[in-house]
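To the wet lab folks,

You asked to see what we're planning to order before we commit. Fair enough. Below is the target structure as tokens, and below that is the sequence we designed to fit it. If anything looks off to you, flag it before the synthesis order goes out.
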């Protein structure tokens, strides 16, 4: 707590003062991303292994080698339509770069889209949880697809259709041409190409305004507090951190629905006064 107080004194005090939640604002527990029995929007059905939180996304063993670290979900197999040169002045300018050619969705974004594509099933796990503390004894590995998710009383299979949880907007879908570009290289060369309108991601991160700080310092290292170290990812888990992905703007492990924290929806920093946008764009 003391270390946290040093980094986010205002945030910690706000949470303590309101007493709104027993969980830290930077915990996934009890958020929309908690799919356990006590999860907020989607819950594992009663009588089934559902008392873990991380397991619906991560598994300590036998993880799949795609998506986010130790990923436990079968990634989306749908093909995506990417934001491309046709929609963009930038990507047309940047003809020398691979940004203009058809590009695959990067691993981290693919992880998000394994639920948010509206197609892939919530229970499309690589491996079910082995421990069910609700049962008398721990059970063996539960087969993927052998249990049910619900939103209140309604059974939900994926993030689309009449039984979809929450607002329909949570479905990003497979057409990404109308979404902020992802899975492309954001480096000093691109910043140079765009002149002063785009910040150089390898220099110190500019915190804009009073709500300008990131909610979670990922590298935990102020010396490496750049856009690239905090907000960008490697391509296929290797090389330089220069890929812009869904998790550049979103932090999946937090109370993203706690409107009081002003980081709804799961934003890595508040977008009040468009401060999130202004972190990268100098407009
Ligand atoms: C709804 C899905 C989801 C849940 C639930 C989830 N994670 Fe993650 N996790 C992700 C995604 C996506 C990434 C990759 C993006 C990133 O680094 O933020 C990730 C990355 C990570 C990383 C590596 C990057 C880092 O921030 O250090 C760790 C460690 C991690 N998760 C731990 C956990 C733990 C522990 C839990 C349970 C308390 C958990 N996660 C629950 C989706 C999830
Ligand atoms: C295991 C499935 C799963 C994964 C993986 C996942 N999400 Fe979610 N996400 C959900 C569910 C379920 C909700 C709640 C939907 C609702 O009630 O509207 C949600 C809600 C959200 C919301 C809030 C939407 C709203 O309108 O309230 C955002 C933003 C979001 N997720 C972004 C992400 C990002 C970015 C990633 C990857 C870093 C990710 N999610 C990974 C299942 C997932
Ligand atoms: C450049 C930053 C950025 C990137 C990249 C990004 N998002 Fe978002 N996202 C936002 C902001 C900001 C909002 C809130 C928009 C608002 O104020 O209505 C949002 C909203 C959402 C919502 C809530 C529903 C909605 O339509 O507003 C979901 C779900 C979501 N994002 C998922 C994703 C997923 C999945 C990806 C990757 C495919 C992604 N986001 C990439 C910035 C981003
Ligand atoms: C992590 C850094 C980052 C954040 C945060 C971010 N962007 Fe971007 N955005 C980029 C980069 C890099 C590009 C591609 C280069 C460019 O067009 O300037 C881009 C592209 C765009 C484009 C398309 C430009 C074109 O011609 O194709 C728009 C519009 C845009 N962003 C708006 C926003 C808005 C609005 C927000 C806040 C909700 C936002 N961005 C947040 C980095 C970011």
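Sequence we intend to order:
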């Amino acid at each position: 707590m003391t270390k946290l107080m040093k980094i986010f004194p205002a945030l910690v005090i706000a949470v303590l003062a309101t007493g709104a939640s027993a969980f830290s604002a930077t915990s996934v527990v009890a958020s929309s991303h908690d799919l356990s029995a006590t999860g907020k929007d989607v819950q594992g059905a009663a009588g089934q292994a559902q008392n873990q939180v991380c397991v619906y996304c991560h598994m300590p063993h036998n993880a799949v080698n795609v998506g986010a670290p130790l990923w436990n979900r079968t990634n989306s197999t749908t093909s995506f339509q990417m934001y491309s040169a046709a929609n963009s002045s930038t990507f047309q300018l940047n003809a020398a770069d691979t940004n203009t050619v058809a590009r695959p969705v990067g691993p981290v974004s693919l992880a998000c889209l394994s639920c948010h594509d509206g197609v892939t099933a919530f229970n499309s796990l690589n491996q079910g949880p082995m421990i069910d503390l609700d049962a008398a004894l721990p059970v063996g590995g539960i087969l993927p697809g052998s249990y049910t998710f619900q939103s209140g009383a309604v059974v939900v299979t994926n993030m689309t259709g009449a039984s979809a949880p929450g607002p329909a907007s949570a479905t990003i879908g497979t057409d990404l041409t109308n979404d902020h570009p992802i899975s492309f290289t954001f480096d000093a060369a691109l910043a140079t190409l765009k002149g002063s309108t785009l910040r150089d991601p390898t220099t110190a991160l500019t915190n804009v305004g009073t709500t300008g700080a990131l909610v979670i310092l990922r590298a935990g290292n102020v010396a490496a507090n750049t856009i690239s170290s905090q907000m960008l990812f490697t391509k296929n888990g290797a090389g330089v951190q220069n890929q812009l992905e869904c998790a550049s703007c979103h932090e999946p492990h937090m109370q993203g629905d706690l409107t009081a924290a002003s980081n709804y929806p799961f934003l890595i920093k508040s977008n009040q006064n468009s401060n999130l946008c202004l972190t990268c764009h100098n407009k």
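Structural context that might help your review: Residues 1-19+186-283 form one domain. Residues 1-21 have pLDDT under 50 and may be disordered.

Thanks,
Computational group
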